[in-house]
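INFO batch 0412 | record 1 of 1 | parsing
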Amino acid sequence: MSIVIITGASRGIGAATALQVAKRGMGVIVTYNSHAAGAEAVVRGIEAEGGKAVAIELNVAKVATFPAFAKAVAAALKSTWGRDRFDALVNNAGYGLFNPIENVTEAEFDGLLNVHLKGPFFLTQALLPLMADDGHIVNVTSATTRVATAGVAPYAAFKGGLEVLTRYMAKEFGERRIRANSIAPGAIRTELGGGLNDAFEAILAKQTALGRVGEPDDVGRAIANLLSPDSGWINAQNIEVAGGYNI
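INFO prediction complete | emitting tokens
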């Protein structure tokens, strides 16, 4: 059985991904920052379908906590699966901010940087000793790195950095046969950035070839498929999951 760690899995894309990988027979470690109830609901949903999952608290903005998180992961692997290694890491945790460049504060900039680029960099570093050879890293980026959307410059810039980092991970971890890919969602109906109102959703749907905005499951299924053995020769790629947004 493969075991997958998914950050920010108490809701939205992370929760959908956790449920989808569990349906494919994988064990799941879900992380949460403040929404413990949501993470526990995901765990219960997986267990109700006969799967195994645990929830562990993690703030990806606080690098100093990563060694303790790694110890918690090691303990969970041993107690739940009788294992000392996990197989895949999905760096998904994140949040949105809508603010024009001229109004962005340093604190807002640093907050987005810590969660979307610095956090995934050092979390991956901290967990590498626990990752099995032939493992897989999936970094969740964004279609905003391809299509400029006014008001999300820092978010998009750091997601772009994560996309580049993904290729370097694939290069440097290749000796251990660890793959690294990124998934770039388009407009998805989640709580990120406060969610979508009806008017904005209608605009986004008209800009999408398939005529609607995405659902968390659209991305969750894509990540789960990428983690499967059938995708074992896909490496160092950024895959947009956006229904044909602005093409």
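INFO post-check: The helical segments are 12-23, 36-48, 66-81, 106-127, 153-172, 198-206, 216-227.
INFO record closed
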